[in-house]
Specification:
- This protein is of the alpha/beta class.
- Helices cover 23% and strands 27% of the residues.
- The protein contains 11 helices and 20 strands.
- It has a 9-stranded parallel beta sheet. Strands 1-2-20-19-14-15 form a 6-stranded antiparallel beta sheet, with no helix packed on it.
- Helix 2 crosses helix 4 and helix 4 runs parallel beside helix 5.
- The two termini are 17 Å apart.
Length: 454
C-alpha cells in the first residue's frame, strides 16, 4: 500500500493476522479453583503457596465464619481474612469472595438465629473487604444458606432478602455482589428495572445439572409467573445475559446428563456471557468436556471441548485486519473482533505503537459484545510537532494532534518502523492480551510503516 503525502511516500506493509488457540492469562476471566478457609484458624500461607495455579488469574476464597454464629467476629478472625486477601493480592490473583456460615450443606442449622447478627457480621466484614477492593472481582452471596449459595436459609423471604442486600451494599460500597438466581435479582429490584443500574449480578453453581440448572430456572413464562417469579429456561438465559453484561457472571458446570449437545452448552455459555468457571468441580462434567473433541473445521478442531470453552471464557479480542486508507488524508483502519463468551466490563486503554513511541486510541473495547467486530480509526497527519519538526504521523483528536515520534528523513532515505497494538486495563495498567500470534513483548504486530522523502 503506497501513498504520497506532502513530499513523502508513505508505504504500509500489513502483517498477516493469525488467530491463536492459546489460553490467555487475562484478568477478570477464565478458570478458577476454590480455596476454603475457616476464619477462626490462622492459614498456613507457606503450604498454600504451593497450591496456587499459575494458569489461573482468578481464585474463589470460601471463608467460613460459622464459628461466630452466636456473636461478633473476633479481631483475630478479621485479621486472618485480611491476611488471606493480602496473600492472593500479592500473588496477582483477582478474588471472587464468598463468606458463609456453612460448608457442609447445613445452612439452616449453622447460620445465626437472628437477622441482626448477620447484618452485624456484614458491617464487620465490610471494613476488611473494602480495604482490598482493588483485588476483589465480586462478592458472591449474602452469607446465608448452604455453602453460602442462598438456599436452605430462614433469611430468604423477600423482605429479609432486601434487608440483607441493603446491609451488604452499605458495607461493601461499590464492590459488585452476585446473587444465586435471576428470581432473587428481580426480587431485589422494582418491576422492569434494566440490568446495569447497580452492581448486583448473578452466579450459577448449577449449570447444566438439570434442564432447570438445579432450580435456577422455572417452568412458567414470565407472563405467567410475573416479575418476581421464576421464568422458563429460555427467558432466564436471555435475562441472565443482560445482567452479565454489567457484572461478571460464572459458576460451576455440574452433572453428566446430555440433554444438550456440547455445542449447545457452549452457545448457552455465550448467551449468558459466562466469564469464569470452576476448573475442578464438577469432575464428571469437566471430564466429559476433556474427552470430547470440539467439532470445527477451523483452528479449534484439534482441541477438546474443555480447551475451547476455557479459551472463550470472558472477553477474547482478535485483530482481524489492518488497512491504510485515503490519499490526501490517510487513516489506519484496525478491525477487532470479540470472540469470547463475555465482554470487558471495565475501562481499558488501546495503545498504537510506532517503534517505541505510542498513542492512546479513542476506543477502549469496553462493552464490546461477543461476536461483535469494531472498526478502530487512527487518522494520520504530516503536520509538524510543537517544535516545528516533521513527524511521520499524528493521531487527530478534534483540533488537537498527538505526535508519537519526531522524524524527518533525508531526501531519498527511507525509515521503516514496526506498527503494533497493545491493550491494558486503565486502573492498574495490567496488560490484556489479544488472541493473535504475539510478539515477545505481548503486542500484536500490525505491519510496518515506511517513510521516504522524495
Amino acid at each position: 500500500m503506497n501513498f504520497i503525502k506532502k513530499g513523502k511516500r508513505l508505504r504500509f506493509e500489513p502483517a498477516v493476522m493469525t488467530e491463536s488457540t492459546d489460553y490467555l492469562l487475562n484478568p477478570s476471566c477464565g478458570w478458577y479453583r476454590i480455596y476454603p478457609f475457616a476464619l477462626e484458624e490462622k492459614p498456613d500461607f507457606e503450604e498454600l503457596s504451593w497450591c496456587l495455579c499459575a494458569q489461573e488469574t482468578i481464585v474463589l476464597v470460601l471463608a467460613d465464619i460459622g464459628a461466630f454464629r452466636d456473636g461478633e467476629l473476633s479481631e483475630a478472625a478479621l485479621g486472618n481474612l485480611s491476611d488471606i486477601l493480602d496473600f492472593f493480592s500479592n500473588n496477582h490473583k483477582e478474588i471472587i469472595l464468598r463468606l458463609t456460615y456453612d460448608r457442609e450443606g447445613r445452612g439452616m442449622e449453622r447460620e445465626p438465629d437472628f437477622l441482626n447478627t448477620v447484618i452485624g457480621h456484614m458491617r464487620q466484614l465490610g471494613i476488611v473487604v473494602c480495604a482490598h477492593r482493588e483485588q476483589i472481582l465480586l462478592v458472591q452471596g449474602l452469607l446465608v444458606g448452604s455453602w453460602g449459595e442462598m438456599h436452605d436459609s430462614k433469611f430468604l423471604s423477600e423482605e429479609r432478602l432486601r434487608q440483607l442486600m441493603r446491609a451488604w451494599q452499605e458495607a461493601l460500597g461499590d464492590i459488585a455482589i452476585a446473587v444465586r438466581t435471576p428470581q432473587q435479582w428481580r426480587i431485589l429490584h422494582p418491576r422492569n428495572t434494566a440490568p446495569g443500574t447497580d452492581k448486583i449480578g448473578l452466579f450459577n453453581d448449577g449449570m447444566f445439572g438439570s434442564p432447570d440448572h438445579l432450580g435456577t430456572y422455572g417452568w412458567q413464562t414470565k407472563e405467567e409467573s410475573g416479575w418476581r417469579g421464576q421464568w422458563r429456561r429460555e427467558e432466564e438465559i436471555e435475562f441472565t445475559g443482560k445482567v452479565a453484561a454489567a457484572v461478571p457472571y460464572g459458576g460451576e458446570a455440574v452433572g453428566d446428563s446430555l440433554e444438550l449437545t456440547f455445542e449447545e452448552m457452549a452457545e448457552e455459555l455465550q448467551r449468558t456471557h459466562t466469564c469464569y468457571l470452576n476448573s475442578k468441580h464438577d469432575t464428571r462434567r469437566l471430564q466429559q468436556w476433556r474427552e470430547k473433541q470440539w467439532q470445527d473445521s477451523g483452528i479449534w478442531g484439534q482441541l477438546s471441548v474443555f480447551d475451547y470453552i476455557g479459551c472463550h471464557l470472558g472477553y477474547r479480542f482478535v485483530v482481524r485486519e489492518v488497512r491504510l486508507e485515503g490519499k490526501k488524508d490517510c487513516c489506519l483502519k484496525i478491525y477487532i473482533e470479540n470472540t469470547g463468551f463475555s465482554l470487558l466490563n471495565e475501562e481499558a486503554e488501546l495503545l498504537l505503537w510506532l517503534g517505541k513511541e505510542h498513542i492512546v486510541l479513542p476506543d477502549s473495547l469496553c462493552g464490546m459484545l461477543p461476536q461483535e467486530t469494531r472498526e478502530i480509526t487512527a487518522a494520520l497527519s504530516g503536520k509538524a510537532d510543537s517544535a516545528g519538526r516533521q513527524v511521520p504521523f499524528s493521531l487527530q483528536k478534534g483540533e488537537e494532534s498527538v505526535f508519537p515520534q519526531s522524524f524527518s528523513p533525508q531526501k531519498g532515505a527511507e525509515a521503516v518502523y514496526p506498527l503494533s497494538l497493545t491493550l491494558r486495563r486503565k486502573r492498574d495498567k495490567r496488560p490484556l492480551f489479544f488472541a493473535n500470534t504475539l510478539s515477545e513483548d505481548g503486542s500484536v504486530l500490525l505491519g510496518h510503516l515506511a517513510f521516504n522523502r522524495e
